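Dear colleagues,

As part of the handover before I leave the project, I'm documenting each prediction I ran so the next person doesn't have to rerun anything. This entry is a single chain, and its sequence is reproduced below.
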Amino acid sequence: MILALSPLDWAVIALYLAFSVAIGLWFSKKGSGGLAEYFVAGREGTWWLAGGSMVATTFAADTPLVISALVRTQGLQGNWYWWSSVMGGVLCVFFFARLWRRANIITDAEFMELRYAGAAGTFLRGYYAFFRAVVCNAIVMGWVILAMYKIVFVLLGWPKGPSVWGLVGVSVVYIFFSGLWGVLATDFFQFLLAMAGCIILAGLVLVDAGGPQALLEKAAAAAQAAAAAGTQSPVVAGDQLANVFPNFQSSDLAVLTFFTLIFLQWWQSAQGDGFLAQRLFSCKNEKHSVLAVLFYSFLHYAVRPWPWIIVGVGSLIYFPDLADPETAYPLMMIKFLPNGLRGMLVAGFLAAFMSTIATHINLGASYLVSDLYKRFLVRDASERHYLWVSRAGILVMTALAGVVCLLMKSVYTAWLLASALMAGPAIIVLLRWYWWRINAAAEIAALLSALILALALVKSSFLGGDQHYAFRLLIMIGVCTGTALAAAFLTQPEPEEHLEKFFRRVRPGGWWGPIA
């Protein structure tokens, strides 16, 4: 179904774009004050601004599409893929938010030299910066662009190449000059706009179906009928649609996946690295960093997902057979939203897209400049020089994200690949804060084994495919943790004077007996 947007829809979208660019340009003076201003907002961010930016970034254009697709294919229980991370959020609130702020750094890659001494710490900083900026960050931006392209294709039928590069170009404009201040300011506005559009769509779906109970009954019946007739993509069994938990009396993959997610998946999100850490670095003090994570966690887990889930359930009634389940959400937009409101929700998705892509472009540029260019190539140039190199880094990250997007087909598959890459070293990443015996050799072993294993397993004829994610996760965490601990005990610990410097600055607690 291809439907051009009306002039009223285009007017709403144009108004949004003008407002977002104006906010970015307004903050251009703040973003020109140096690297600390550009990448961590001068460490003057408030809890509500930083927390709102976190939730806006994780909104993205991809999340509604994937969550509605998970509901269609796995039922409500499919959401445990990300619901399980709530425990990681709790740990971040009460343990790690303060520690990141005390570290007083610009990027989490810089943490490597704070924690580890000598050439090994320097290598880790460079490797981690390259890995996060080029590998992980490009994958994340690639799936965000892919999701927005799917919306554009359903609505307008535009080809993939021009759509991808057009979307990337739009998102660069305001961040190019304003840095993190522009991202923080626009994020809050963009989240409100996107959330309002999603709530309106969910309300229209509920009213049309006759209420929540009728929605579930009709969707279950439609799913059952579609499964019996045969569908182009998997559809959840009707009697499993509303189940929050799998059937524990069975021994199928759903049960193994559930327990793997509940007990292992969330470790990777507990310390809050990447863009979450960047938001914590930007907070004015420790109290604001803790409140920022708490505010983010409440909106992320308790408030934001339900409109998407409602639309995903409803899509089974109106579009029971889809070749690509990730197109269900934009198809529901076309069906239910009139002119004007359709433009508002497209603007909302564009807002979510721009928020996320701008965050990751800024984050990737911070790695490239602070942790690679300034650290290893040009150390003593002016702040103005580094700002312009940062902006060049933004263009590099943008081009890389566009190329990665063109190679992707499924947002959810990309989610699983990124999760596996980060989950492998997760236990070692947490232990390094609290146990003095974790050294650079342990972290190097964990990171390298994770990269090799993730790529090997996802290509495996036995364990490839989304349905085998739990098996891959178990293998990744077990092998990476074992390899890292072996490396730690086969090599010398970090020098005591370096560990003491780290301990005095961060004050982490835990097992620091010889140092504390």
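Residues 7-423 form a domain with the Sodium/glucose cotransporter fold (CATH 1.20.1730.10). DSSP finds 22 helices and no strands in the chain.

All the best with the project,
I.
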